[in-house]
Amino acid sequence: MSKHIIISLIAFMCAVIDAIGGMLGYWSVSNSQSRYYIFGFELLTLCLLVVNSFLIAHYLRTSKTQFRLAVLCFIALVFCVLGDIVNFNLGGEYYGKGDVIKHDYLIDSIWFFGPGYLLIVVALMQILLQFYQPKVLLVCVIGSLLLATLSYTNMVILGSGVYIISMAFFYSLVISLPALCGVLLLLAYGFNKAPICIWVISLGLVLASIADAIIGQFWLFGNNGKGIFPLAREINWIVYIASQSIIVHIPRILPVDESSASINHQKLCKG
């Protein structure tokens, strides 16, 4: 097992311990005495992922195409980490943008998560163009956006305010795309023929969309705007770190151009 996989597993186990401990009541971000220790531990978990992404980029430095993909994924991860820091709500402020949504600080993190995941999607679309015609991808994207819109209308609280409603809607469209890319990736390789590492990458992309669906449905708009907190946060943290622990491996696993499309994926999973 490579050091890159080991680091991802350590990060994921840290997230599991953190979240389960919170759900069992051993510590809580709602407790003023323990919340900053939790944030510190979670920041270290995120730093593990950043270090892993950097090491993967260094590992792929001899391949220009894979290295560029690795750098893109690294930048995307840094954007997401900045979004996570916003979501920590270090100032402990609630109802900052009105009296409807308690955890409205989550909306500000979209300024970081939005570009972060868009970078990932752009990178993945370059890879998917090896397997699909552009018009096919366009139809799939439109279908994904329509489903995201339908899902959003069933979740949003209309009295939340223009800023919250518009930003959340934009992000609901963006975050639907990683899951789409994951499904398309599996279809491209064939469900029965795809190597296990392709399945894992696809799972990580789907989990990214699920993690933010949890935020929208249960943390941001849930419980009539008060949020099911901190339970939604704990569950989201496990799913989110699981997805990021996998996504950092995209440059190691997926070929960027046709000349590298014959790479032995099983070997890459171990290397």
UniProtKB/TrEMBL annotation:
<feature type="transmembrane region" description="Helical">
    <location>
        <begin position="196"/>
        <end position="221"/>
    </location>
</feature>
<feature type="transmembrane region" description="Helical">
    <location>
        <begin position="69"/>
        <end position="90"/>
    </location>
</feature>
<feature type="transmembrane region" description="Helical">
    <location>
        <begin position="136"/>
        <end position="157"/>
    </location>
</feature>
<keyword id="KW-1133">Transmembrane helix</keyword>
<feature type="transmembrane region" description="Helical">
    <location>
        <begin position="35"/>
        <end position="57"/>
    </location>
</feature>
<protein>
    <recommendedName>
        <fullName>YhhN-like protein</fullName>
    </recommendedName>
</protein>
<keyword id="KW-0472">Membrane</keyword>
<feature type="transmembrane region" description="Helical">
    <location>
        <begin position="7"/>
        <end position="29"/>
    </location>
</feature>
<keyword id="KW-0812">Transmembrane</keyword>
<feature type="transmembrane region" description="Helical">
    <location>
        <begin position="110"/>
        <end position="129"/>
    </location>
</feature>
<feature type="transmembrane region" description="Helical">
    <location>
        <begin position="163"/>
        <end position="189"/>
    </location>
</feature>
